[in-house]
Design brief:
By secondary structure, the protein is an all-alpha fold. 66% of the residues lie in helices and 0% in strands. Helix 1 packs across helix 2, helix 2 crosses helix 3 and helix 4 crosses helix 6.
Length: 155
């Protein structure tokens, strides 16, 4: 039996909608109710279908997405582990470090140190925050872009 064979084909569109929500808003608080609502399903049916289709529960998928993004930020930027923790949606540095270590096999600081010694130049954290490259900023990225679009003579 393949991963998606237990779920009717017409449900896949709805499951993808919820998975896309996780991919897009991974740093925001997402719960089963919100994800099931995005898929247009009851939360328990959604949970069963999602796990059957993707091989992970929605919570496990969300965790993997957050840790993947943390790996990107730790490799490419000079942000601190604490800053990365907040940017990817964790409120607790301890929880973040534990999950990161479980999934990656080393602590976030060890991972960052490994890449700092072998990688190229790192993007300054101020640039990440200033240009919204972290995917999260204090104001909505869309609002910031629409202000710039409306006022092209802003310098």
């Amino acid at each position: 039996m393949t991963a998606g064979s237990a779920v009717a084909g017409d449900l896949l569109v709805h499951l993808r909608r919820a998975r896309d929500l996780i991919d897009r808003d991974y740093a925001q608080p997402l719960d089963l109710t919100k994800l099931a609502s995005a898929a247009g399903m009851s939360k328990f049916h959604f949970l069963r279908c999602f796990a059957s289709t993707y091989g992970l529960t929605p919570a496990a998928y969300l965790t993997e997405r957050r840790i993947e993004r943390a790996q990107d930020l730790l490799r490419a930027t000079n942000l601190t582990v604490t800053e990365v923790c907040g940017l990817v949606g964790y409120a607790s540095l301890g929880s973040f470090s534990n999950r990161f270590t479980q999934l990656v096999g080393m602590s976030p600081s060890a991972y960052q140190a490994r890449w700092a010694s072998t990688g190229g130049p790192r993007i300054p954290g101020c640039f990440i925050f200033m240009h919204g490259l972290s995917d999260r900023s204090p104001i909505s990225g869309n609002a910031a872009r629409s202000d710039k679009a409306q006022s092209p003579d802003r310098g």
